[in-house]
Amino acid sequence: MNMITPLQRQLVHVILIILFLITGTEQEQASFQRKIISFPEFDKERDEVYFEFSGKNTTIESRALQLTTDTTNDGSLPDHYNNSGRIMYYQPFRIHNGRIMGSFNSTFLINLFRESDWEAGHGLAFLISPNFTLPESSYGHWLGLTNSFSDASRDNHFVAIEFDTQNPGQNHIGLNINSVKSDKIVSLNDHNITLSLPSNQSVSYKVWVQYNGTSHLLQVFMDKQGEPKPTTPLLTQTINLKDFLKQESYFGFSASTGYPKIQLNCVLEWTLEIEVLPKKRDWKWLTITAGVAIPTAIVLLVLSLVFYVYKRRRRVEEPDHEYGNLRYLPGMPREFKYKELKKATNNFDQSMKLGEGGFGIVYKGTLQENCEIAVKKFSRDNIKSKGDFMAELAIIHRLRHKHLVRLVGWCYEEGKLLLVYDFMPNGSLEKHLYGVSEHSTLTWNHRYRILTGVASALYYLQNEYDQKVVHRDLKASNILVDADFNARLGDFGLARTIENERNSYAELGASGVPGTIGYVAPECFHTGKATPESDVYGFGAVVLEVVCGRNPGMRIPDEQHFYTLVDWVWMLHREGRIEDAVDERLENNFVVEEAKKVLLLGLACSHPLATERPKTEEILQIISGTLPAPYVPPFRPVFTWPSTDPATIVIDSLLAGITSPSQGYSSEKSSLSISQMPSAPSPSFNLPVSGIMRP
Ligand SMILES: *[C@@H]1O[C@H](CO)[C@@H](O)[C@H](O)[C@H]1NC(C)=O
Ligand SMILES: *[C@@H]1O[C@H](CO)[C@@H](O)[C@H](O)[C@H]1NC(C)=O
Ligand SMILES: *[C@@H]1O[C@H](CO)[C@@H](O)[C@H](O)[C@H]1NC(C)=O
Ligand SMILES: *[C@@H]1O[C@H](CO)[C@@H](O)[C@H](O)[C@H]1NC(C)=O
Ligand SMILES: *[C@@H]1O[C@H](CO)[C@@H](O)[C@H](O)[C@H]1NC(C)=O
Ligand SMILES: *[C@@H]1O[C@H](CO)[C@@H](O)[C@H](O)[C@H]1NC(C)=O
Ligand SMILES: *[C@@H]1O[C@H](CO)[C@@H](O)[C@H](O)[C@H]1NC(C)=O
């Protein structure tokens, strides 16, 4: 009689949970997790959700965080007076646990603008605080940090670096702990820095605040925008921040104006690299959990007994109910009716077709609510197991990032599988790179912005989510572009359940799926497996493609040689003229230093040895400018197999498995040859570069 099995299973679960809680508590993880949040600019619509704004006129405007009133209209002068504001990153970080403290680097660009006839005041501060609430009456010299009641209170638990402009003679930075009165002041007058210059000489300053949680060394570096990080810090202080800060603290900025002293207080860029501790797990929680878990377990035991008996009775009537309950779990995407999607796509009409890939066709659809969707209809429906499929769907649905296309829902009926995505009206990067349209070539700024977005999406997939997620199919046709030229990575995952393991990269290579050649890392032809490193390789191919405007699968003739795109760029690098690789349709309208940097990055990602490719974190730092371009040897290294480093083939992704050719909105255009490309001149938009990391 195996009726005891569910009982035993429940018991084992309870014991395991308790053991896990106890051991987890005892050895309070001393392991930090590194996070990077990078805003190379701020976009109101896109980035508002990542900040908490408090203050009368705090907002994102003109691609910057505006802590106080941001207009220079004379009519708005009264709005400027006696103002203060805070803009904090929306999530707190657990930076210490009472014993150990994480390190962080906060790098930002500030501009304290004033009209020539304004008297500057009062200042801006980089702030670490227990909450994002702006204290009342914190205008004037309180800098949005404190007020006359709370100043210097030990309960404030904040640390700030102030950039004080209220008195031109003082022009200084300071380290503030719980008070606007600085613990340490460094005058900027000896460093040729004037924080608030009149409008015709306005300068933005880059600031590097670095803190080492082990050595307790706090350093602040500062220089004019565009200058490299100075070698010597302006301010140095050994201080154990954990004595002052709450374990969970918010990071951000505050600023104030006074009367009549006013200025615009803006932050134009911000990158925060921070070591955080995992969420707190303590005895109190254990007690509560155990208090809940044990009675729950008992109830579950009884229920499972009842259910078991019930099921035995009903088994004949209800055969396949196994995965039905998954549908109702929270966090599952919406399930659509086949009929509904059929109607939305006009019975899958040819005219609604957006693109076609190896696995199926993508149609445009319109739901009743006038909501536009992209429906992917799989042509082969040999799903291995519906349970696997549902489990992966739940994971993919939980991935949320502004540079990923959102999965809206799914449908599995009568052996037909359909996935529903947000519709992206502007089409794919491929279309923008090669599309024949009256619109001219993508500008350099657009290209850089697109690459930044793709890099941050890739970083998210590999580092920010609980499980590493491997995309497996990074390529221009899978990158969609929105109206503001923000990249969105098209769909990922799922392929494992849709095709079986045999359909690997190796098979792909042989059949030469158009548009995929050139994106696949060399080791994949041997392992047939996608890894985070092979995604980086794919990213490298996208970088070269975007910068050079050439498909990575194309052969490029140059002085009687035919080169692959990688080899061609590598050859130009060797000859010291890598910038010659830049898409000639840009007609020199590009930033040479940026172009060189990303081309080198593209080459570094194309390293034949998986272990030598940069990590997504470095990629992000290189693109956002916090790390210099990587070193690239003059000759492309040789690919060896098996690699000397066994780590190359380790896969720890739940979703790692198989490539899927063209899961995105791939279109027939992928085979468009270079000679057909239009060479329209590029307009000179001057959009700043974009791209963000989020948690
Ligand atoms: C500043 O905030 C006040 C109060 O909310 C509002 O009336 C005013 O229009 C704002 N001014 C600007 C320039 O945004
Ligand atoms: C600003 O605040 C100061 C002192 O709190 C006060 O004297 C002044 O009248 C205020 N000005 C305005 C325009 O609110
Ligand atoms: C901060 O930057 C310094 C210097 O570039 C680096 O050594 C350190 O590892 C960085 N710390 C963090 C937490 O990123
Ligand atoms: C926010 O923190 C300050 C101390 O910095 C404290 O006085 C205030 O009560 C806190 N506000 C909230 C809403 O928790
Ligand atoms: C100070 O800055 C000004 C303008 O930014 C520059 O022209 C000048 O050369 C600098 N002086 C020194 C000593 O660096
Ligand atoms: C800025 O304007 C002031 C007067 O408004 C003038 O004296 C000064 O020379 C100007 N500076 C520059 C760099 O143009
Ligand atoms: C902090 O300082 C310690 C000791 O000086 C050093 O070993 C460590 O690498 C530093 N950490 C970071 C993140 O720079």
TrEMBL record:
A biological process from GO: response to other organism
SMART domains found in the cross-reference section: S_TKc
Binding positions (ATP): 377
GO annotations of cellular component type: membrane
Subcellular location: Membrane
Extent of Polar residues compositional bias: 667-687
Superkingdom in the source lineage: Eukaryota
InterPro entries from the UniProt entry: ConA-like_dom_sf, Kinase-like_dom_sf, L-type_Lectin-RKs, Legume_lectin_dom, Prot_kinase_dom, Protein_kinase_ATP_BS, Ser-Thr/Tyr_kinase_cat_dom, Ser/Thr_kinase_AS
Keywords assigned by UniProt, alphabetized: ATP-binding, Kinase, Lectin, Membrane, Nucleotide-binding, Receptor, Serine/threonine-protein kinase, Signal, Transferase, Transmembrane, Transmembrane helix
Signal peptide: 1-27
Region (Disordered): 667-695
Ranges where the Protein kinase domain occurs: 348-632
Residue spans crossing the bilayer: 285-310
Topological category with respect to the lipid bilayer: Single-pass type I membrane protein
Pfam families the record matches: Lectin_legB, PK_Tyr_Ser-Thr
MF term (GO), any: ATP binding
Keyword ATP-binding: yes
Coarse class of the protein's main subcellular location: membrane
Protein family: In the C-terminal section; belongs to the protein kinase superfamily. Ser/Thr protein kinase family.
Identification of the protein by name: Protein kinase domain-containing protein
